[in-house]
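Protein Record: Sequence and Backbone Structure Tokens
======================================================
Tokens: labelled as protein backbone structure tokens, with as many entries as the chain has residues.
Task: work out the structure tokens from the sequence, keeping to the layout shown below.
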Amino acid sequence: MSRIVAAPDKFRGSATAPAVADAVADAVAGSGRECIRLPLADGGEGTLDALGGGNRTTIVTGPLGLPVPARWRLEGAAAVLEAAQACGLVLAGGAKGNDPVSATTRGVGELLAAAAGAGARTVLIGVGGSATTDGGEGAVDALSGTDLSAIDLQVCCDVTTRFTEAARVFAAQKGASAHQVDALSTRLRNLRARYRDEFGVDVDRVPGSGAAGGLAGGLLALGARLLPGFDAVADRRGLDAALAGADLVVTGEGRLDVTSLAGKVVGGVLRRAAAARIPVLVLAGTVDDGLVLPSGVGVVDLTRRFGSKRSWRDPCGCVRAAVTEYLG
């Protein structure tokens, strides 16, 4: 092996995708091989990091109404935003600290307005990890009077859930009770009618419109395009070109389970590597028992290999050690 591609997702709560890619690159350098670093994301948290990190900060309305500093990126006329920076569940104190009914996406609209005001003409927004199920109403209202007609607005979605199903599928994870899920579902149905009447768009017809509690649908009503998050990030990062001529691709995430193979980074890398006939090594903090991966794919469960204390205290060290062992 002479050329290896490091294309991991983040290890949620433990290491960013760029940090994991650096750890892989360190191990590869020690073996005398070439490594191409391509940290990736699926459109959720970590999208901003995967695409270069923030170089601007704007104070916006957080999910519970308090001001928060939101990082974003502007290069020329191209901006990258991450909804979790403005309305992330972590900003609300997790599910226990969240108010799932009043949590708002207003800050996302304010962030988009800031990007438009700074001259952005292409805006990519990763919408995962939100505290909200407001159907994007907060963002839509915050953008009232903002001209988005000249902006190519691209929304990266990591799910295919439709708008009116968002509360039923996701709200409980954000702290909503069964009664609140019903109330939020009613709100989404009413918002569907509002968006259809006001913008002429039936958001419920588009897969992914329920992403981020319907934020994707709200942005769709304003003229956005909804894109599969992994493909949007991978294409922007040039994954296919990097795979051409590579001998191995190393990917991974914090927890490898059946959802990893459906729209997430690991599944996307496996699909593209298979098309290019390149072997894959998957590293994960933990691997679910019984998970079946395609033949020829190497898997390392870092917790089992190095112990839970070390793997979560020093995940990047474990990544370096695992790749070094694999390369011999």
User: Anything to note?
Assistant: The mean pLDDT is 95. The first helix runs from residue 17 to 30. Residues 47-230 form a domain with the Glycerate kinase, domain 2 fold (CATH 3.90.1510.10).
